[in-house]
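Researcher: Dear colleague, please comment on this protein.
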Amino acid sequence: MSIENCLEEATKILKNVTTRPLLEAQILLSNILNKDRIYLHLHSNEMLDRKVLNHFFEDVKKRAKNYPIEYITKRVSFYSQEFYIKEGVLIPRPETELLVEKVLENVDTKKSVTIAEIGFGSGVVSIMLAKKLKNAKIVATDISIKALEVARENIKRHKVEKKVELRLCSFLECVDEKIDIIVSNPPYISQDFKLDKNILYEPKEALIGGKKGRIARVTGSGSIRRR
């Protein structure tokens, strides 16, 4: 089967689970071939071997069951950069980029600053802050072993090991330093809210925030407000 025919079949399978079936089919095939999507267009008549086809349609069927494409490819985009992700760790949302923006608005970039992130998850917020702020030190906490593994890998890939320190604990229980800014994206969905099917595969402890959910804001002076 050619690349073109392969994508056509996958698009038919995915059309009921996503608004972008062709794009997702291309992403899945590109991931397996380790090629970009332009390659698929330029080599649309290329024949794929049985091993690749089997792998591809296994991934397509998995996605057709609403399994997140980010978990399949183990890749997620955040702040226009690529990060590692896997099942068991919350997938970063585009709107979470606002947390990074809010911190940047509240920091004097000429001065040294110590930032604490509560619930680092995949580590994307702490990593982007480390890359954007030359004089920042980030101490990030979480209670998830899986999150710790993923965040460590992302820190290594983005080469910010000297600027971001991960600690396994709840809230700031293991943080003794003077903190200038605290940032957090805690579980924000109420427990009676009906989740989309694809979200059901993500860790509930990172999503469900009790009866009303929780919202955290970036604050200074070592404090954090919730409502």
Residues 50-64 form the longest helix (15 residues). Confidence is low (pLDDT under 50) at residues 221-227.
